[in-house]
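Before surveying the methods themselves, it helps to consider a single example record, giving the amino acid sequence and backbone structure tokens:
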Amino acid sequence: MGAPQLDTQILGIVFQSRPDILTGIKNAADTPARTTLFNDIASYVYERLSTAEGADGPASKRRRVDITQSVTQSKPNGQTHADSQTAGSHPEDAAADPVLLEIKDISVSAPQRKKYDLCFTKRFLYARAPGTSAPAQGITYPWKDIEHAFYLPVPDKAQVQHNYVFFPRGSSLPTSKQAGPSLEPLVLTVPATAPKPGSIAGQSAAAAEAVSDTYSSLFHWALTTSMRSAGNHACQIVAADPKLFHSVARQPHRPNEKAVHVKGFRGSKDGFLFFLPTGILWGFKKPLLFLPLDRIVAVSYTNVLRTTFNIVIELDTDTVGEDMPGIDKEIEFGMIDQEDYQGIDETYVRRHGLADRSMAEQRKAKRELAENNKQPASGDASTAEAEATDGLTALELAEREAEQQLQDEEDEMEEDYDPGSEGESEGSGSSDEDDEDDEAAEEDEGDDEDETGNLGD
């Protein structure tokens, strides 16, 4: 994740009347621990300032929240986390929290495709339909349970747009149909423009408008502040980095912008692969997946054709907790353009030290072949083959094997070719010529016999 950075936006708002304190904090934040401490203090002060403008909501709502928290904390050992997550995910619990910030008219594409108003509370992020007060079903996310957050450009759009992608805990890895997570990933789309007038409301509206040059700056600030205030310091917003990976394919819609994704298929569904600093993300159609680097055991390149190839990612499922049952061990993405192989293999797979399982299997097969062939000629052939393939990548070796197989098939077709089975006229002509040659040979033999007889006489 890297060293933490000072949240200058929150610090600037909290200490806007005391620039001397702000300067002192910047000078003193010389270690990760101090930086985290200053950020926590700023988030706490900001939260207190935001809620000081009004009460914490009706007394009935406050009592309801207190009851929910006391029931959760009184559970026996081993049940607290699961029960609190289930209770906290309920829309009624989210509605009981005062809305600190509301951003209206936001496009949501998962788990439902519709425009919603997004509401930020102390404990929850949820969506609700315009003109309503109740959270939409299935779109209520406790801040503490968001495990991964991403900020990615939307491919194949003429206008620049970005997706925010959130994976609740236990929803990122591929699972069997019987073991799916209770909460699906959330995907919302924002344009590269400033928020519309009147689209920001809530107790923190004034602070939000101060950082709302664009939708992205507004959401980055609101999301980071909310997660830190809820105690979720482990989750940070991860963006694609063209320096780490970018496709060589030119984007027809935005030709001057490097694509940080590659197109592919998972089964029959098309989508996009993003090779990110923390792992590989597949989107944006259901089911969305995120494969963290620390879960990837190895990769293999398969089904290599002249223009495309497949990539198989092997996952570590032995260390997955009980809250994520039924994890698939391997996942395959197909029909990836061969032009992107070098970028995937060299600038991502090798840079992160991921094992190339396809190369390892081919080398193992070559060693076994050399050990089994004890004759000198076979040994020489194996040595020559090993030298010829030394230094080639797995994809190049697979291409060579496919070409050799195609050549072998052509050779077999040539061996099966029978000239006598072609046109009848050609066969008849050849037969007539052979008959004439035979008659001429018989006449010559008769002449020779006569001459010999005359000599004898």
